[in-house]
Amino acid sequence: xxxxxxxxxxxxxxxxxxxxxxxxxxxxxxxxxxxxxxxxxxxxxxxxxxxxxxxxxxxxxxxxxxxxxxxxxxxxxxxxxxxxxxxxxxxxxxxxxxxxxxxxxxxxxxxxxxxxxxxxxxxxxxxxxxxxxx
Length: 134
Description:
alpha+beta, 3 helices, 134 residues, CATH 2.40.50.140, five-stranded mixed barrel, 44% helix, single chain, elongated
C-alpha cells in the first residue's frame, strides 16, 4: 500500500474518533495526517511526509491551546458566553434554571444582591453552571 493511502486512512480514523470525543485535537491531527498524505501523493519522500504531519500537528496544537486557554492571552471558548443575556425559567435563593442557547442551564447568582426579576447576564462559568448577575 502506498504511504499516502495509509495517511488518508489514518486521517479518516482520527476525524471519525474526533466526532465521538469533541476535543478538536484529533480533528487537528487528522488534518495533519491528510496533509502528509497529500505530500506523499505529490511524490515527496517519507521524511517530508513526517515533517509535514509534525509541523502541522505542533503548530495546530499550539494555536488550539492558546485559543482554548484564556490565561495564555488568546480568546477562550467560554469568553464568547460572558455578557450574554439569559432567560430565567425558575429561581429560588440565588440558584435556579435559566434558558440560554435553546436549552436549560443551572445558574447561580454572582452575589446575594442579584435580582432575578431584572435581566440576567452571564458573568462567569464554573463547569456547566452559569454564574449570572444583573
